[in-house]
């Protein structure tokens, strides 16, 4: 089977997602990169379910639900921030920065 | 055969992920993300997780990505290509950090060489034969994991209410 390969793919996707979160300043694209990281972890869960049983796939189900909830709330926050600042570039949000 | 298909879809997934990070416009990023999600769904099929592959296409590539697309269109971000890549030293530092992370992950995964076990792969295949594709997931989900499942319902309700309150105009 292709378990090791799937884990390597998962690691690469996670790293690319981390890199995207670090270098992009557009809030929506940072958010997309976080979704990419969640998907990489889901892939690792599915690969490990071939080793330790079907519980890994159940966890993927829960992760997807939490990701959907997080996307809805996060995009609502982005909309309300955009109403206030007229931009989604996170360099402009300085309220909580020291 | 499975190996060849896996490498094909892995290539599409990694190319799409790089497209997400590097694409200039948010809509372009989003379309690359849909390609990545679809090829991850294909790798789920190759790993015998058929139900999750269907859910991945329907919920992720269908619902969540369309939600993102709606927000991009609503905020009219489709055509202001302002430069938003962090340049210079910061990009270098993040590249170093991410490279170190990749090295650690690749070493950990590559050194062990994980293989399928009877407790995992064969049990899943037997459950697929006995209960069907949906039943294999549903059986533990509604017995062992029924409490987390119900809590998930509450979480979704809270998320809906929170999204409506946050995105609503006027005083909260």
Protein described:
The complex is a heterodimer of chains A (98) and B (172). Chain A is mostly helical and 98 residues long. Chain A is built from three helices and no strands. In chain A, helix 1 (3-23) packs antiparallel against helix 2 and helix 2 runs antiparallel to helix 3 (55-85). The longest helix of chain A is centred in the C-terminal third of the chain and has 31 residues, at 55-85. Chain A is elongated and about 50 Å long. Chain A starts with a helix and ends in a 13-residue tail after the last helix. In chain A, 54% of the residues are buried. The mean pLDDT of chain A is 89. The N and C termini of chain B lie far apart (56 Å). Chain B has two domains: 1-115, NADH-ubiquinone/plastoquinone oxidoreductase chain 6, subunit NuoJ (Four Helix Bundle (Hemerythrin (Met), subunit A), Up-down Bundle), CATH 1.20.120.1200; 118-172, no CATH class. Chain B contains six helices and no strands. Chain B is mainly alpha-helical and 172 residues long. Chain B has helices at 2-22, 26-46, 50-74, 88-112, 118-141, 146-167. Classes of the chains: A mainly alpha (98), B mainly alpha (172).
């Amino acid at each position: 089977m292709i378990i090791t390969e799937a884990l390597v793919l998962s690691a690469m996707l996670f790293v690319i997602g981390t890199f995207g979160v670090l270098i992009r300043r557009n809030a929506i694209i940072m958010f997309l990169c976080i979704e990419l990281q969640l998907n990489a972890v889901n892939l690792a869960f599915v690969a490990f379910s071939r080793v330790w049983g079907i519980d890994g796939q159940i966890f993927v189900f829960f992760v997807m639900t939490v990701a959907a909830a997080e996307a809805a709330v996060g995009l609502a926050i982005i909309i309300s921030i955009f109403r206030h600042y007229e931009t989604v570039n996170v360099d402009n949000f300085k309220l909580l920065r020291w | 055969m499975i190996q060849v298909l896996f490498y094909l879809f892995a290539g599409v997934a990694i190319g799409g992920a790089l497209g997400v990070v590097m694409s200039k416009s948010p809509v372009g990023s989003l379309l690359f993300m849909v390609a990545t999600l679809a090829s991850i769904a294909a790798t789920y099929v190759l790993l015998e997780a058929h139900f999750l592959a269907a859910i991945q296409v329907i919920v992720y590539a269908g619902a969540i990505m369309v939600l993102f697309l709606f927000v991009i269109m609503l905020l009219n971000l489709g055509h202001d290509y302002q430069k938003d890549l962090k340049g210079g030293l910061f990009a270098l530092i993040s590249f170093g950090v991410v490279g170190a992370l990749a090295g650690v992950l690749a070493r950990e995964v590559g050194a062990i060489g994980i293989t399928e076990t009877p407790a995992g792969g064969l049990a899943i295949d037997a459950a697929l034969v006995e209960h069907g594709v949906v039943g294999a997931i549903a059986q533990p989900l509604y017995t062992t994991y029924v409490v987390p499942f119900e809590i998930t319902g509450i979480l979704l309700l809270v998320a809906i209410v929170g999204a409506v309150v946050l995105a609503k105009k006027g005083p909260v």
